């Protein structure tokens, strides 16, 4: 398998990303974090509360990183490929909702 540094596109990165999320608890924590990110973002837009927007990264990364450190036992891809990792979070969220990736 390729290392994170070798990816030239998200299409190449996503299979690696999914392989780093084999543990169901880790995936569920990602799902919770991404759900909170979406809800907080929507609330901030609707209410005009800019201060609450500061909690968005904490909600998203907090749940995801807990999943990696305590359940998956690996280092989040965020540290080496932050943009692809962020896109991966939303792609996995979508794929979990559609049933392509199991909860």
Question: What does it look like?
Answer:
Helix content is 67%, strand content 0%. With 103 residues, it is mainly α. The radius of gyration is 14 Å and the shape is globular. The chain starts with 9 loop residues before the first helix and ends in a 5-residue tail after the last helix.
Keywords:
single chain, 103 residues, globular
What general form does the structure show? Answer: globular
Q: Compute the number of strand runs.
A: 0
Structural class, judged by helices and strands? mainly alpha
**pLDDT < 50 runs, ≥5 residues:** none
Share of helix, binned? 55-70%
How far apart, in Å, are the first and last alpha carbons?
24 Å
For the largest beta-sheet, the strand count, sense and barrel status come to: none
Rg over CA atoms: 14 Å
Order of helices and strands: HHHH
Total of helices:
4
Estimated share of beta-strand residues: under 5%
Mean pLDDT: 92
